[in-house]
Specification:
It contains 24 helices and no strands.
Length: 575
């Protein structure tokens, strides 16, 4: 027999492998299922070497699920049957003693009893597995560092940009009461002016997303920020209803392409398992802007500088930050991971490999216009349309609902809005984390929509205490924002890279028409019926319709690999 090297413990002979050892080995491999896929593959390849005799191949394959094990030569010499030879016991004893002395002289490990043999065998096996796991963990640590640096650099800045965008879009809700009183606007005029923003917004949605995909995100975002800051200040200069409509239309056209561009931009930096949390971190800016916008607007509405109305200062002052951030954007943002000088070389390479692997898995040379005719994209567009009818109807009339429900003044009602939108921030972040952990974006979209429709319906109950009305509105706001991370993950799963940008742009463009019809229809009905019940019915029914359409899609049920339990033990926000 051959001597066994010192660094490689001898393997047991085939007739010595018992079913209990096969059971323990296969159980140990199954226990590694929570580890990274590469480690599993390497572990299974290592365990193959533990089975020496071809007769064990079938049972090994069934136990480990690894296909046929390659033939390994047993320690027996070719031609031997493996049966016990009783013809020459004395010669065999002398030969065994000689081989024992040779092995000892060579420094080989001298195995004693069979239990000792298996103990060393298992120990050596798991030491090897531990080394492989450590190497994989080191690679994952590099990727983890890259993901954390990316999140820490990009998300706070994108969060700030979207706060400014949302303030400039929704500040008309906080200025509604004094502006309508000053310019004598009816509810119908206000509703149409608030909604015409989305007609201009429709024009550049798909081109804006394609520009981010194929050209430069930072240059495009800088152009958007400067132009919409100027247009926001123009709203503060209007004197008539026609000027109000024109200024809101220009603001929508200036801001068009920003939101879908950000969604596409996040796909350039975050892998699929991280995108719901990344989008949640970005979308938190929506409720945060409204939560900050209420007290900030209430503060600005108390100033009367240079004999100019306070609501005009509201638009002028909130347009300035967008212009300044537009110039910052040119120097701070990076278009692609390969251009990120703030990442180390190994971090940049690891992040690029991971993202390219996901792109290769969904590669398809399809023209971008095919996205428009994808049935799943059409369903998402219709669902987003209803969600925006409900969402903007709720947002633009929330100060009025708070004023009547809590029986307070306009400034105090704006300040009270911090509670609903503060709760919405928390709900949005938790929904994004849960969506990434479970890998079920559809469920995390449908359930909040159903909850928003039901909770908003409860505000229609007559003669409620003001505190209870405030509680229903706060819970409605939490549900009304927490569906967004899941919904914006769905089009990235329903389309390949060549159509992803167009899909996101088309969904946002067609869906944002609901942002026009929602306030316009709500304002028309409110001016005719003078009842909050019309707003409640429209918003609740729209949320229910949107939830039904999302449930009909065939994406998002198991398209994302949920975060393994083993990797969640020491998980960081992006680990």
């Amino acid at each position: 027999m051959r001597t066994v090297p010192a660094l490689r413990p001898a393997r047991p002979q085939a007739h010595q492998i018992l079913p209990i050892e096969r059971f323990f080995t296969s159980t140990a491999v199954r226990a590694l299922d929570g580890l990274h896929t590469d480690v599993i593959r390497q572990a299974r390849q290592a365990v193959r070497h533990l089975y020496l005799d071809p007769r064990q191949q079938t049972s090994c394959s069934r136990a480990l699920g690894i296909g046929r094990v390659r033939r390994l030569e047993t320690p027996l010499r070719r031609g031997q049957s493996g049966k016990k030879n009783t013809a020459q016991p004395k010669k065999d004893s002398v030969r065994a003693e000689r081989e024992h002395r040779n092995r000892a002289a060579a420094g080989a490990v001298n195995f004693g009893t069979l239990p000792e043999l298996f103990l060393l065998w298992y120990t050596n096996t798991f030491v090897q597995l531990g080394k492989m796991i450590s190497e994989s963990d080191a690679a994952m640590t590099v990727l983890g560092r890259a993901r954390r640096k990316t999140a820490r650099r990009l998300l706070p800045f994108l969060f700030l940009l979207y706060i400014v965008a949302y303030l400039d879009r929704a500040n008309v809700a906080f200025a509604r009461l004094p502006m309508a009183a000053d310019l004598h606007f009816s509810e119908a005029v206000y509703g149409f002016g608030a909604g015409v923003f989305f007609i201009g917004y429709l024009l550049l949605e798909i081109p804006g997303a394609l520009i981010v995909e194929h050209w430069s995100a930072r240059r495009w975002f800088a152009r958007i920020l400067v132009s919409w800051g100027i247009c926001t200040a123009l709203v503060g200069c209007v004197q008539t209803a026609s000027q109000f409509y024109g200024a809101r239309f220009l603001l929508g056209a200036a801001e068009a392409g920003f939101f879908p561009g950000i969604i596409v931009y996040l796909t350039h930096w975050f892998r699929e398992r991280d995108r719901a949390r990344a989008m949640a971190g970005f979308l938190l800016a929506g409720p945060a802007a409204l939560a900050l916008g209420g007290p900030l607007s209430a503060l600005i509405l108390h100033i009367h500088w240079l004999h100019i109305s306070s609501w005009r200062w509201l638009f002028i002052l909130q347009g300035v930050p967008a212009v300044l951030l537009g110039f910052v954007c040119l120097f701070y943002l990076t278009d692609r991971p390969r251009e990120a000088g703030w990442l180390a070389d190994d971090e940049r390479d690891a992040l690029n490999r991971e993202l390219e692997r996901e792109v290769a898995a969904r590669i398809d040379a399809a023209p971008w216009w095919r996205a428009i005719w994808n049935p799943q994209i059409l369903l998402l567009s219709a669902a987003f349309w209803f969600a925006n009818v409900a969402g903007y109807g709720f947002i633009f009339w929330l100060p009025s609902l708070l004023k009547e429900g809590t029986r307070t003044g306009a400034a105090r009602a704006d300040a009270l809005s911090v509670l609903p939108f503060g709760l919405a921030m928390l709900a949005t972040w938790l929904a994004g984390r849960s969506c990434d952990r479970t890998g079920e974006p559809k469920k995390h979209t449908v359930l909040p929509m159903l909850a928003a429709g039901a909770l908003f319906g409860l505000t229609a109950i007559q003669n409620q205490p003001p505190a209870l009305t405030l509680a229903w509105l706060s819970l409605t706001a939490a549900a009304a924002f927490s569906w967004q991370p899941g919904l914006w993950l769905l089009p990235t799963l329903a389309s390949v890279r060549s159509t992803r940008a167009a899909s996101i742009g088309f969904i946002n463009a067609s869906g944002n028409l609901g942002g026009f019809f929602g306030p316009a229809i709500t304002g028309f009905l409110f001016s005719r019926l003078h009842s909050n019940l019309t707003i409640v019915v429209l918003v609740s029914c729209s949320y229910f319709a949107s939830a039904i359409l999302i449930a009909l899609t065939r994406i998002g049920g198991g398209d994302i690999e949920a975060t393994p339990a083993a990797s969640r033990v020491c998980a960081t926000p992006f680990e």
